[in-house]
From TrEMBL:
Gene3D superfamilies: Acyl-CoA dehydrogenase/oxidase, N-terminal domain, Butyryl-CoA Dehydrogenase, subunit A, domain 2, Butyryl-CoA Dehydrogenase, subunit A, domain 3
Domain Acyl-CoA dehydrogenase/oxidase C-terminal: 237-385
Domain Acyl-CoA oxidase/dehydrogenase middle: 130-225
Protein name as annotated: Acyl-CoA dehydrogenase
UniProt xrefs under InterPro entries: Acyl-CoA_Oxase/DH_mid-dom, Acyl-CoA_Oxase/DH_mid-dom_sf, AcylCo_DH-like_C, AcylCo_DH/oxidase_C, AcylCoA_DH/ox_N, AcylCoA_DH/ox_N_sf, AcylCoA_DH/oxidase_NM_dom_sf
Lineage of the organism: Archaea, Thermoproteota, Thermoprotei, Sulfolobales, Sulfolobaceae
GO molecular function terms listed in the Swiss-Prot or TrEMBL record: acyl-CoA dehydrogenase activity; flavin adenine dinucleotide binding
Keyword terms: FAD, Flavoprotein, Oxidoreductase
Record keyword Transport present: no
Start and end residues of each Acyl-CoA dehydrogenase/oxidase N-terminal domain: 16-125
Family (UniProt): Belongs to the acyl-CoA dehydrogenase family.
Keyword Flavoprotein: yes
Length: 395
């Protein structure tokens, strides 16, 4: 392998268990999820029957170690599951992978008490969780955080607002970042806490988004919310680095969402163009349609391989290359999803804007935005490669 990756680590290890997992999740989604998709999108909620199906399959605890009641699945397994769920319903995959983000962060940084208390609740489906990081004053500028946490006796008192919190309106516990001190550099002095609903955070309102409408996005208010000092996750002042590392892992799931959404758009295009006739022949006979189908097939395959490669690197502990690959996969796969959805609308003609195909294009816009915008991911790729391969710090 050549730049930007190391030559000795260019491989993806798909095992039989991964394909068996894919088959089981696909069957689950077709039988127990797809019948509820349109209803869920209209009502902007994940129906209880669908959440129960996911929980019963053990998917909420896919990434949680068996010691805490989970499956102990690797990141490649998470990518495959996310892809298959997103092929049917991106809103549901968003709901699920936020639970994985919460669990991954706890397993990386939290005390044994917090892990033992909360991870089994997530794995069993008894807990609905969220990650409150983005603020109204800025999304990608995490270092500009205005939410504060002041130490008072044996508690931290949190004040501030968080917005675009996935699962925010329904979460009974969440991870929240807040500034505990001023550091020499802007990112220093940010800490992470685990707050539960009984600690007093409030839902200020539901945010209606154009896509993934059933995932429940909300704005939260923290007004003198008292969190026990034992609910500090990791080290005080290290919350920024912890958040960034957690997002490095979760970006693989967003990339996989893009792959699954693009796959759905491709399948819809192939099916429609093979059956719809115009001028006495299937529309797939027209070369302009063939061009769109071929481009989509090539791009979906490339996005899938890049996403699996990123997951494999991180699974093997190669953070240096894994972070770059995850950022590349995130921006590439989500933009492939956008293009595949747009092509699907074109192939469907008038039906493209009056059928579920149009939802795929709306959903793709959300994927490009969260877990770090695609513009930010491009900056991350170049800066990481320049620093690690050439010893140059670029801004």
């Amino acid at each position: 392998m050549t730049l930007p990756f190391s030559p000795q680590d260019f491989k993806v290890e798909l095992r039989e268990e991964h394909e068996l997992l894919r088959q089981s999740v696909r069957e689950l989604c077709e039988s127990r999820v797809r019948p509820y998709v349109e209803k869920g999108e209209r009502e902007m909620a994940i129906p209880p029957e669908v959440r129960k199906a996911v929980v019963d399959a053990g998917l909420m605890g896919l990434n949680i170690k068996p010691d805490y009641g989970g499956q102990g699945g690797d990141l490649l397994s998470q990518a495959i599951v996310t892809e298959e769920i997103s092929r049917v319903w991106p809103s549901l995959s968003t709901h699920v992978f936020i639970h994985w983000l919460f669990s991954t962060t706890l397993q990386l940084f939290a005390s044994e008490r917090l892990r033992s208390e909360h991870l089994p609740e997530v794995a069993s489906g008894r807990a609905v969780v969220a990650f409150a990081n983005t603020e109204p004053s800025g999304g990608s500028d995490v270092a500009g955080m205005r939410t504060t946490a002041r130490k008072v006796g044996s508690h931290y008192v949190i004040n501030g607002r968080k917005t675009f919190v996935t699962n925010g309106g329904i979460a009974d516990r969440l991870l929240v970042t807040a500034r505990t001190s001023q550091g020499e550099r802007r990112w220093m002095g940010i800490s992470m806490f685990l707050a539960s609903r009984e600690h007093g955070f409030k839902v200020e309102g539901r945010i209606e988004t154009s896509g993934v409408r059933a995932s429940n996005t909300a704005q939260l208010l923290f007004e003198d919310v008292r969190v026990p000092e034992g609910n500090l996750v990791g080290e005080e002042g290290n919350g920024f680095k912890q958040t960034m590392l957690a997002f490095d892992y979760s970006r693989v799931s967003v990339a996989a969402q893009g792959v699954g959404l693009a796959q759905a758009a491709l399948e819809a295009s192939l099916s429609y163009s093979s059956q719809r006739e115009a001028f006495g022949q299937p529309v797939a006979s027209f070369q302009m349609v063939q061009e769109r189908l071929a481009d989509a097939m090539a791009e979906v395959a490339a996005a899938r391989l890049l996403t699996y490669f990123a997951a494999s690197l991180l699974d093997r502990g190669n953070l240096q290359d894994g972070v770059v690959a995850a950022s590349m996969a995130k921006f590439y796969a989500t933009e492939v999803a956008e293009r595949a959805a747009s092509r699907a609308i074109e192939v469907h003609g008038g039906y493209g804007v009056s059928t579920p195909v149009e939802r795929l294009l709306r959903d793709s816009q959300i994927l490009k935005t969260y877990e770090g915008t695609n513009m930010i991911q491009r900056l991350t790729v170049v800066r990481q490669v320049m620093k690690s391969k050439f010893g140059v710090n670029v801004r």
